[in-house]
Design goal:
alpha+beta, Sulfite Oxidase, Chain A, domain 2, 5 helices, 12 strands, 25% strand, globular
């Protein structure tokens, strides 16, 4: 190809890179931790919960339930707890479908963990929940499983390495600041993905799949977000 042709090809390549960069930048500005703001739900219930939520824990000030932005792909999901079942399947010997109460039959843990959003804001919340490791004991995970894929009621998904979940003792939260998760914050369960950016903190979890697909990309990862999502100092 001649020199002029080379310049044209490079220009087109540069344009493609620029368009991809602009898309990612726009996604960060508009969607933040993973979603569009199409919710029309009143925040009245959240305001009521602020009257009873814990505001301090072991000397540390906590953020409020209202300090979040509504970041979900289809707005808050309202799950009927009477029919809700959490499915745990994939590379397991004993697939399970657990009711809300059955999940909560496991030992509870509390911990203050900071959620960092890609938009630049963060919240310090007292989370209470059950360890994923305890749930996995009941399904007998196969040795070749190395990835855990989480699915949400609204079609959202994301994944984390199984080793990360076990090493960091990650949990499914059902309470925040001492109150049951409201629908706007992920009822019945939200993943507390400690040291990961907000789009890994999936809400309204309905299914957990054990997999050997270490390259699985969730909703935002397919759209260019880093699959590791590590919080950088």
């Amino acid at each position: 190809m001649d020199k002029a042709g080379t310049v044209v090809v490079k220009s087109r390549h540069a344009n493609r890179i620029l368009k991809r960069y602009l898309f990612l930048l726009l996604s960060l500005l508009l969607f933040g931790c993973g979603t569009s703001n199409n919710d029309t739900t009143s925040e009245t219930d959240l305001e009521e919960l602020t009257k009873i939520e814990v505001t301090e824990y072991e000397g540390q000030d906590l953020s409020s339930l209202t300090d979040f932005r509504e970041n979900s792909i289809k707005g808050p999901q309202y799950i009927d707890i009477d029919t809700y079942m959490l499915k745990i399947d994939g590379l397991v010997e004993q697939p399970a479908s657990l009711s809300y109460d059955e999940v909560l039959d496991n030992q509870k843990y509390t911990k203050v963990v900071t959620l960092h959003c890609v938009e630049g804001w963060s919240v310090d919340i007292l989370w209470e929940g059950v360890l994923l490791a305890d749930l996995f004991e009941g399904v007998n995970v196969q040795e070749r499983a190395d990835t855990v894929i989480f699915y949400s009621e609204d079609g959202y998904s994301t994944a984390l390495p199984l080793q990360t979940i076990m090493d960091r003792q990650l949990m499914l939260a059902y309470k925040m600041n001492g109150v049951e998760l409201p629908p706007e914050r992920g009822f019945p369960f939200q993943l507390v993905a400690e040291d990961k950016l907000g789009y890994k903190w999936i809400k309204w979890i309905t299914r957990i799949e054990l997999s050997d697909d270490a390259d699985y990309e969730g909703y935002w990862e397919q759209r260019g977000f880093d699959n590791k999502a590590d919080v950088k100092p």
